[in-house]
């Protein structure tokens, strides 16, 4: 078995070297798991990428690590924490049951002592009964201390677990690169805010945005500079939004923003303000200061129609985004500016940027 493990390790290092990938623990884990045939889904993706001739670089390795190991580690921790909480609860229940039994027995013993005191007795017998009373009180006090310590330990342990579980929950709903909500968290918030909008009668708007020509920029200047652009957009979104608004990285270079208590026109104004802000930022090469150009985004805005499927709500904003792309990018398009919108008299494309 040891020889097999060494052979798998050598294969993993050989694959990392062949693809020019740094042998970090995360990268090594991806390839070791593949060569050990421990995760068929991971191995299938790697084989498809290699057979198609697609580039297998640091970025691809990081994506596979995030997909197959970070999430599964969180799931594993949540399972272990749940088991631990169940164990603590059972231990506390056993302590309470034992204390209840001891209390019942103590009551019986004290009752017998009190009955004996009611009867005439000699001095030596009274002294013996007094000792028995003192011993019984000491036993009860010791039991109470033990139970108190058990309760305190269990409370501290469960409080600690709740803190860690909350951190894991936040991490599971957060995009690691930008710090914004991820798609899972966005979908949850969208359902919640749509229900609130129907109950309150207040408006709810959404805009979908993505970075113009991001793939070309990424291919030209590399993934690290692409990450800088994604972080910039995320930072400007946070800067302009209210605490109750929800900004999420929906996937790749696409972002989505939910605006509760906001109708279509003011939502479009917010998206436009963010678009203008981002377009003023120019990127420069860190080494030589070379100007890499400015970042621009396109956005599509829609307002929720109470009772409609959430998919339809999102698709209207998405259609408006594609309209912004068709009309020259670096612009915001509202759903009521779409050519097929029932309330639109004449579709007027904005001038090119």
Provide the β-strand percentage band. 5-15%
What's the number of helices?
Answer: 10
Supply the CATH architecture of the largest domain: 2-Layer Sandwich
Shape: elongated
Helix content percent band: 55-70%
Number of domains: 3
The order of strands across the largest sheet is 2-3-1-6-7
CATH top level of the largest domain? Alpha Beta
Number of strands: 7
Named CATH topology of the largest domain: Alpha-Beta Plaits
Uncertain regions spanning at least 5 consecutive residues = 344-353
Instruction: Spell the H/E element sequence.
Output: HHHHHHEHHEEHEEEHE
Can you say what the CATH homologous superfamily of the largest domain is?
Reverse transcriptase/Diguanylate cyclase domain
The first-to-last residue Cα distance is 65 Å
Reported for the largest beta sheet, the result is: 5 strands, mixed
Q: Name the average pLDDT.
A: 79
Describe the structure.
This protein is of the alpha+beta class. The protein contains ten helices and seven strands. It folds into three domains: 2-56, no CATH class; 73-172; 183-337, Alpha-Beta Plaits. Helix content is 65%, strand content 11%. The strands form two sheets. It has a five-stranded mixed β-sheet, with helices on both faces. The chain has a two-stranded antiparallel ribbon with strand order 4-5. A hairpin with a 2-residue loop joins strand 2 (246-251) and strand 3 (254-260). It starts with a helix and ends in a 19-residue tail after the last strand.
